[in-house]
């Protein structure tokens, strides 16, 4: 199937993509992403902001020159040890170090103001103690744990435990990808980043729940004893919700792209960068994370009676399986709807069968 035809089918909401057949490829892609992200975290580590680690930070806006090496030399000349320098846009500078006294903060601010050729009043100083950093870290961890517990309880009772496992696999993939991007790019992790991560995990969960709900609807219609395989249910469900998921993702990404690239990179609104990067990466991952959750669910569910249905379908062949399924359906209607002495309903239309059933009920 050509890409052009696939796009045309998606636009007309008439896709017949074999998602179940791509299970191995999707799992390989997801596994590769997670492994690369974990390696990046181990090698580069996260660039935690001073809200988590504590320390002192100086932020300069409107700087006439922004050289990382020169700024580091200026900061060290003012008495800082191993300062971390970040260039914020075209005219912004941020210098971080371990916590220093107020007098030392003023000395560094004056040195940076002289280098950047800006008034010293335009340099903001943030000072966070270790106790505050520990408290922020603890609250962020508790919020994340509470989120996972709430998600697990909701999906388990709303759907089933296997769907909860698959949903957690999808969330783990999205979280690993987002943290991996932050580690590689050395973007600063701030409390706004934590809020953004929780937001994108909720967004990813929404797409996954939509797919699971459609799968459960299709499953309830055919029953576990049917000759319809679970792979077929997965393909039917994903194709039915594909256009909806893509539309939701595109309309959600457009304002985030505007906020991140136009507001942050072009207009210099660096305050929203930490929040925007997490939203952009997470939503982009959430666009296909439901495809990662479904193969896991398919793998788990194929160990139920659906696996027997799949084996029967493979043994008799697709055309014979369809014929057998039709025979089973007719037998089910006859056994549940017929009364002794009543004429057979085989060959009647659905409307005629409904009329006969109504007459039997009236008796």
Features:
363 residues, alpha+beta, four-stranded antiparallel beta sheet, 13 helices, 6 strands
Textual characterization of the structure:
The protein has 363 residues and is an alpha+beta fold. The protein folds into two domains: 3-48 and 133-301, Multidrug efflux transporter AcrB transmembrane fold; 55-128, ACT domain (Alpha-Beta Plaits), CATH 3.30.70. The protein is 71% helix and 8% strand. Strands 3-4-2-5 form a four-stranded antiparallel beta sheet. Strands 1-6 form a two-stranded parallel ribbon. A hairpin with a 3-residue loop joins β3 and β4 (92-97). Residues 318-347 have low confidence and may be disordered.
Walk me through the topology.
Elements lengths: L2 H9 L11 H22 L2 E2 L1 H4 L1 E7 L6 H10 L6 E5 L3 E6 L4 H15 L6 E6 L1 H29 L2 H25 L2 E2 L1 H32 L7 H37 L6 H29 L3 H12 L1 H20 L12 H13 L1
Parallel strand pairs: 1-6
Antiparallel strand pairs: 2-4, 2-5, 3-4
Helix pairs in contact: 2-7, 2-10, 4-5, 6-7, 6-8, 7-8, 7-10, 8-9, 8-10, 9-10, 11-12
* Architecture (CATH level 2) name of the largest domain: Up-down Bundle
Order of helices and strands: HHEHEHEEHEHHEHHHHHH
Rg over C-alpha atoms, rounded to the nearest angstrom: 29 Å
Number of helical elements: 13
Strand content: 5-15%
Could you estimate the helical fraction of the residues in percent?
Answer: over 70%
Can you tell me the overall shape?
Answer: elongated
Structural class: alpha+beta
The number of E-state strands comes to 6
Major sheet characteristics? 4 strands, antiparallel
* Unreliable segments of 5+ consecutive residues: 318-347
* Total domain units: 2
What's the CATH first level of the largest domain? Mainly Alpha
């Amino acid at each position: 199937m050509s890409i052009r035809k696939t796009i045309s089918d998606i636009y007309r909401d008439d896709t017949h993509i074999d998602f179940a057949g791509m299970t191995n490829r999707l799992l390989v892609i997801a596994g590769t992403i997670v492994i690369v992200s974990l390696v990046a975290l181990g090698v580069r580590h996260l660039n935690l902001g001073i809200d988590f680690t504590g320390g002192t930070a100086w932020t300069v806006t409107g700087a006439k020159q922004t050289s990382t090496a020169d700024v580091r030399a200026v900061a060290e000349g003012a008495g800082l040890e191993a300062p971390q320098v970040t260039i914020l846009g075209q005219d912004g500078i941020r210098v971080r170090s371990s916590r220093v006294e107020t007098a030392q903060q003023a000395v560094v601010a004056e040195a940076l103001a002289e280098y950047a050729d800006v008034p010293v009043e335009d340099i903001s100083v943030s000072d966070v103690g270790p106790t505050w950093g520990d408290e922020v870290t603890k609250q962020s961890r508790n919020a994340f744990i509470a989120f996972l517990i709430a998600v697990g309880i909701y999906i388990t009772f709303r759907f089933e435990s296997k769907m909860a496992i698959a949903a957690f696999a999808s969330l783990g993939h999205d979280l690993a990808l987002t943290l991996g991007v932050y580690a590689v790019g050395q973007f600063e992790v701030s409390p706004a980043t934590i809020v953004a991560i929780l937001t994108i995990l909720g967004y990813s969960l929404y797409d996954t729940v939509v797919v699971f709900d459609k799968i459960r609807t299709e499953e309830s219609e055919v029953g576990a004893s049917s000759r319809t395989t679970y792979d077929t249910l997965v393909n039917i469900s994903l194709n039915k919700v594909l256009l909806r998921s893509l539309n939701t993702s595109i309309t959600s990404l457009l304002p985030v792209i505007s906020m991140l690239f136009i507001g942050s990179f072009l207009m210099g609104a660096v305050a929203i960068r930490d929040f925007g990067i997490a939203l952009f990466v997470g939503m982009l991952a959430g666009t296909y994370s439901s495809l990662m959750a479904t193969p896991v669910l398919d793998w788990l569910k194929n160990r139920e009676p659906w696996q027997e249905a799949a084996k029967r379908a493979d043994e008799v062949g697709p055309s014979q399986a369809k014929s057998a399924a039709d025979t089973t359906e007719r037998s089910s209607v006859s056994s549940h709807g017929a009364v002794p002495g009543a004429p057979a309903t085989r060959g009647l239309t659905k409307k005629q069968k409904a009329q006969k059933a109504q007459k039997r009920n009236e008796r």
